[in-house]
Amino acid sequence: QRTKLLSPPTPAKPKHWTAEVFAGLDLLYSEKDRQLYTGRAKLTYTRAPLRNNIDYLFSYGWTDGELTANRMDSWMKTDWDLTPRTYLYNLAGGGYDAIRRVDWRYEMGPGLGYHLIKLTNFVARLEVGFQYQVQDFEGSREEKTYSQRLAQDLRWNIGPSFSFDEKVEYFPDLADLHAYRLRIEANLRYWLKSNLSLNLTV
Question: How far apart are CA 111 and CA 99, in angstroms?
Fold first, then answer.
């Protein structure tokens, strides 16, 4: 009697690309009417030792017929692992802000990152680097800034239904430490399906 040997199942190929798309609408009709439209798209490519993240967002709106939001920002961050815990990165970005009368801006800078905690469901990282920014204001006034960059971010999968992530970036001006830029973002997500979630973003 012959016994047929079954070959082991072929493992699924790793996914190198992930994408997220967000859209928001804020409408208020009262003593003052307000309409605000927001959108965001994230694209990530991962193939060890490389990670590449692209983040694009915009906002546009007005209050009582007056333009109160017209802004676009985009960033591309590339990480290259040196060891299981340390990595090099480069951060580049650009955009405009019509309300602040910034016709265009761009920035870039390298740095070093470290995985402070690296678990299956929880990751926390610290980063230090430098950033160079150029802003062109209305009237052809240009402003250049050299900054240090100190950053921290974490991701936490809280069971199968919830996830939380947050990021803090601090950019003190090297020419005047009393002048700085600060970015803070936090997201709490409730996953309705594997590809659909409700999000609370600050």
Answer: 31
Angle (CA) 97 99 102, round 5°: 40
12 by Cβ neighbours in 10 Å (0-12 / 13-18 / 19+) ranks as exposed
CA distance 180 to 28: 33
Evaluate whether 81 touches 49 at the Cβ level (below 8 Å).
yes
pLDDT in tens, the chain (202 residues): 555 556 666 666 778 899 989 888 899 998 889 999 999 999 999 999 999 999 999 999 999 989 999 999 999 999 999 999 999 999 999 999 999 999 999 999 999 999 999 999 999 999 999 999 999 999 889 999 999 999 999 999 998 899 999 999 999 999 998 999 999 999 999 999 878 888 888 9
pTM of this structure: 0.83
